[in-house]
């Protein structure tokens, strides 16, 4: 049985400047604005647009085929998740550059032109993003992210800071060759922190990860996966998102943290996870919090510890960056502590 049905236009570009890759799952209500924002880009750009539909049940594929005949569609017969979806699109892509774009995001009209200019100005072409603005409020969300010591993303709001620790997969731009050199998204992470992993891998090799000063994109945060934002001043997330987040950030910390610093940091991280999980479980009187979010981190490490250490060895052998240069986009204050004082305990649904 064929796992992906491909619908490619007859006029598909042979050597486009940029391939825009849009992962879609039940995003019928979002696709029109997302795609129109790509098609309305300024400048003399030769673009191709690729949508991977992850076995949607909302007629997304038929809508795309009817209304956007000039885009390529990879229609999966089974739900494979964000990592596989993007890996498939980049493998299919022909562009010199790729732009990963969420279906719940829309670009400013000069976005791709800005990204191309910024990429060509880098000392070595690396990973880029645009300033992210909230879809509903038009408030700046981040200009890329820093990381705290436990690999929690910390939004960068400083227009003067161009170098960042990571950019989110909702808007990620780079040369296609660099994607292949870095190995793409690791499918064993499933979803969440795959963008962090790729950016940390790049920075370990001395490859820049940056945000442009100009242009922007709008993003309906949390629409595609749930959570990841404060509503009415309170943090809200889902059990699945929080489980994958805690598990995958732990894996990235282990694989990517350079030097022997990883071991005391890992020990402190695990102690904090135990205290955090126990406190949330007791305060909210819900044993599911420990069972479905925190316990899986330990079972994951027991089952995959050896393979994670092998990945760490391979990653660190490619390291060209010093500990100091790698750590210059980390902040010392734990992000969870800052969010707790600002928003209180999260609501998990």
Could you explain how this protein is built, in words?
The longest helix has 31 residues. About 2% of the residues have low confidence. The radius of gyration is 20 Å and the shape is globular. The protein is α/β, with parallel strands linked by helices and 349 residues long. It has a six-stranded mixed β-sheet, with helices on both faces. Helix 6 runs parallel beside helix 7, helix 7 packs antiparallel against helix 8 and helix 8 runs antiparallel to helix 9. Helices cover 42% and strands 19% of the residues.
Search tags:
349 residues; alpha/beta; Spore Coat Polysaccharide Biosynthesis Protein SpsA, Chain A; four-stranded mixed β-sheet; globular
Total number of β-strand segments?
17
Helix content: 40-55%
Main CATH class of the largest domain: Alpha Beta
The rough form would be described as globular
Strand order of the largest sheet: 1-4-3-2-5-12
CATH architecture of the largest domain: Alpha-Beta Complex
**Sheet bearing the most strands, described?**
6 strands, mixed
What is the CATH topology classification name of the largest domain? Spore Coat Polysaccharide Biosynthesis Protein SpsA, Chain A
The arrangement of helices and strands along the chain is EEHEHEHEEHEEEEEEHHEEEEHHHHHE
Structural class: alpha/beta
InterPro entries: Glyco_trans_2-like (IPR001173), Nucleotide-diphossugar_trans (IPR029044)
Domain Glycosyltransferase 2-like: 19-131
Protein name: Glycosyltransferase
């Amino acid at each position: 049985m064929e796992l992906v049905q491909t619908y490619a236009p007859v006029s598909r570009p042979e050597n486009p400047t940029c391939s825009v890759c849009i992962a879609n799952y039940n995003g019928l209500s979002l696709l029109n604005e997302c795609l129109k924002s790509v098609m309305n880009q300024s400048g003399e750009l030769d673009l191709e647009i690729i949508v991977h539909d992850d076995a949607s049940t909302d007629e997304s594929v038929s809508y795309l085929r009817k209304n956007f005949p000039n885009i390529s569609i990879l229609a999966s017969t089974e739900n494979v998740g964000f990592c596989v979806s993007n890996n498939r699109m980049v493998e299919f892509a022909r562009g010199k550059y790729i732009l990963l774009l969420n279906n719940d995001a829309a670009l400013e009209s000069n976005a791709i032109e800005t990204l191309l200019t910024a990429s060509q100005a880098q000392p070595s072409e690396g990973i880029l993003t645009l300033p992210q603005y909230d879809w509903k409020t038009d408030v700046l969300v981040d200009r890329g992210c820093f990381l705290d010591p436990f690999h929690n993303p910390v939004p960068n709001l400083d227009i003067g800071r161009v170098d960042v620790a990571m950019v989110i997969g909702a808007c990620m731009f780079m040369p296609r060759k660099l994607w292949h050199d870095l190995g793409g998204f690791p499918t064993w992470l499933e979803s969440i922190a795959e963008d962090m992993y790729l950016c940390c891998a790049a920075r370990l090799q001395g490859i820049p990860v940056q945000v442009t000063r100009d242009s922007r994109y709008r993003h309906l945060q949390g629409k595609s996966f749930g959570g990841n934002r404060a509503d009415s001043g309170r943090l809200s997330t889902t059990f699945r998102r929080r489980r994958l987040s805690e598990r995958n950030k732990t894996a990235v910390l282990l694989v990517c943290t350079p030097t022997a610093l990883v071991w005391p940091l890992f020990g402190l991280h695990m102690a904090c996870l135990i205290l955090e999980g126990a406190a949330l479980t007791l305060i909210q009187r819900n044993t599911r919090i420990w069972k479905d979010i925190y316990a899986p981190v330990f079972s994951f490490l027991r089952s995959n510890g050896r393979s994670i250490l092998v990945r760490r060895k391979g990653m660190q052998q490619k390291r060209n960056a010093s500990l100091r240069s790698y750590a210059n986009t980390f902040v010392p204050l734990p992000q969870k502590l800052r969010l707790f004082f600002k928003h209180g305990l999260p609501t998990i649904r």
